[in-house]
Write the structure tokens for this entry.
Amino acid sequence: MSGGLFALAVAAFIILIVSTIIFLASRYRRCPSDRILVIYGKVGGNRSCRCLHGGGAFVWPLIQDYAYLSLTPMTISIPLQNALSLQNIRINVPSTFTVGISTDPLIMNNAAERLLGVAVQHIEDMAKEIIFGQLRLTVASLTIEQINQDRESFLEEIRKNVEPELNKIGLYLINVNITDITDESEYIESIGKKAASEAVNKAKVDVAEQEKLGAIGQAQANKERAIRVAENEAESAKGQKRAEADRRVYVQGQEAEAVAGENRARADIAAANAGLVVKEAAADQLGEVARREAVVQIQKAQYLAEQERLNAEEVVRREIDKRMIEIAAEAEAERVRREARGQADAVLMRYEAEARGLLQVLQSKAAGYQSLVGSCNGDARAAATLLLIEKIEGIVAKQVEAISKLKIDKITVWDTAGGDSAKGSSTAGFLSSLMRSLPPLHDLAAMAGVELPEYLGKVKADVAGGSSAAASAPPPRKG
């Protein structure tokens, strides 16, 4: 017996340990590398939550709960139009920003407090509003030359202005990409043309400078040649002639080379000018195409915005109509309910009043009957007799009323002359029979089971019928 209890205790202990391990395992939460684990509730200190990137933590039941924040980057297009620069020239700066939730402890805590449970689209909308405002502020602090020529400085200024604002809601700036900067006044295009012209002019100056250096070199070569010829003239006439011939050949070669170099330089200048004209034409064409495409995109955006506005107005109008119909229907239903409730209350009150009246009548009758029985010393039969006596007068009145309402124009009595004188005439017999047709009071009382007192009289014997018995009331019953 003791061995069985020990085995049962061991099994219960093992089950308890296994259940505890399973419970602890079910409350341990691991954090993937692309997410942030946010544990909120009672986390200790004055903190509202505890954030983990990587690893895991135990989440206590009842007093704590958890959720995840995604670290997936979000790409936001910012089609900034008509932004005012430092020179009061409006420019278009279409750009693309890539943002995400930071793993820095402070910024990560901001994200847990402001972005936990918020939809991705709503987060992108908040970031877009922040970037729009800070990008306009950055453009307003720079000239067009600084924006267009020094892109690195421009991007650094954008990062310096945008990133602190994004950090306040838990985001940080990953990348900024400026596609193309344009303006309606074609100021940037004029700057490009100016730079191209300066480059062409510099190339021409460089060519002239090289030609000058070539002429100087040629003069120096001629000088050296003359010195060497003069030195060689003293040695030998043959050498002098030969040197003269070499000099002439050399001079002619140098002259030919100089002419060829000059021709090549002129050809290069012409080719550069032609290329410049082609590039200017291509740039003008691209600028015009881009400007017209921008106008088309602006018109499309305006059309879509107007369409959205009209759709929103139609939805609002229909929603208002629907709400008015619902309110009217609810009011009508409430009126019907109130009328039905009022009618039901009226019927209930009428029935209650009738019931109270009937109850009052019955209570009054019961009290009267109780008083009547009491006045008869508790004799209920005597009390019933008195009640019947009260009703006899009414019954007789009803009988008289019934006879009085008979419409008899005339009565024809066929009386025989030889009738029995003892019985009277036939006319008298008719009247006597008519009166006997009415039920006597004693008969009515007898049918009701009540014996009338003797002072109300008795019914005499029927002489015509020869009956010797008197129609008296039956003897009283012993109660």
About this structure: Confidence is low (pLDDT under 50) at residues 461-479. The chain is about 65% helix and 10% strand. The two ends are 86 Å apart (CA to CA).
